[in-house]
Design goal:
Blueprint (H helix, E strand, L loop, with lengths): L2 H8 L6 H15 L10 H12 L2 H12 L4 H43 L2 H14 L15 H22 L2 H10 L1
Length: 180
């Protein structure tokens, strides 16, 4: 059986699978090396030391009173969680997973807004290429979980807002507000 026939029979119903596989492969090749980058900022090192010493709650109080931002009481223990669960490599791996999810959600939003899957694919490609050239304070190598998780909440808020606009169901509006 010729290769073209095999290819056509495999992807006849889902012709986008090869494109998705290529984009996922590009994401893996681009993001995987960042697992071994170490710390990009002193803040990350401080977060890990605080987490491993078991002083997350007292550090939250220091950050909240020193910076005047009450939300540190809620967010600081969450930001220390990756270090408590498995150290820097585990934390970076989960962080990169969130970054990948964000690229996928952003591509989904572009696809939903334009009703063009190729715009979604191109959005994914552009974000995967350009996010890696940002420098030290990019969402991949610094402030683990802080940038990617915050952005994930914003993206879900946008997705649920779009769903609300389409369906007019209050449930989606409430989810959009909650994620925001």
């Amino acid at each position: 059986m010729p290769l073209k026939t095999i290819y056509n029979s495999m992807f006849e119903k889902r012709p986008d699978i090869p494109i998705v596989i290529l984009l996922a492969g590009l994401a893996i090749v681009t993001l995987f090396p960042f697992i071994n980058t170490g710390f990009a900022t002193g803040d990350d090192l401080e977060f890990m030391i605080t987490a491993l010493s078991g002083h997350s709650l007292s550090a939250a109080e220091v950050y909240a009173t020193g910076a005047g931002r009450f939300y540190y009481y809620f967010t600081k223990p969450f930001y220390d969680l990756p270090y408590m669960l498995g150290g820097i490599t585990f934390a970076k791996s989960i962080n990169i997973l969130f970054v990948f999810v964000n690229f996928t959600l952003l591509a989904f939003i572009a696809w939903q807004l334009t009703r063009d899957k190729w715009t979604g694919y191109f959005t994914f490609l552009l974000t995967i290429v350009f996010v890696t050239i940002k420098g030290a304070n990019n969402p991949i190598v610094s402030f683990l979980w802080y940038f990617p998780v915050t952005f994930t909440f914003i993206l879900f808020s946008i997705i649920f807002s779009l769903k609300f606009l389409k369906t007019k169901k209050l449930y989606f509006r409430n989810l959009a507000v909650a994620f925001y």
